[in-house]
Design brief:
16% helix; two-stranded antiparallel ribbon; signal; alpha+beta; 87 residues
């Protein structure tokens, strides 16, 4: 029985996905970004903490030339529903 359970768990773990991968198209040199807007590329993974009510989600952008750090909160601590999703 233990071996069958182990085989089923291994089989199920190979079929699961953590998140859907969404491939973004590159911004061409002729495309323009509107004034006051920006494009941020990256992988964003939500950390869940059920006992503590979840984790806050922050994004940190670091300018490697000036070493300036920009940080902003995307989602507060006790909020578990999806926000800021692209359609």
């Amino acid at each position: 029985m233990k071996h069958i359970t182990l085989i089923l768990l291994l089989f199920a773990s190979t079929l699961t996905n953590a998140q859907t991968i969404k491939h973004l198209s590159d911004v061409g040199s002729k495309d323009a970004v509107a004034n006051g807007q920006a494009i941020i590329y990256g992988n964003f993974i939500q950390r869940l903490g059920f006992a503590s009510g979840g984790f806050a989600q922050d994004i940190r952008l670091i300018n490697i030339d000036t070493k300036e750090v920009f940080a902003f909160r995307v989602k507060p601590t006790f909020k578990s529903s999806k926000e800021n999703t692209c359609k």
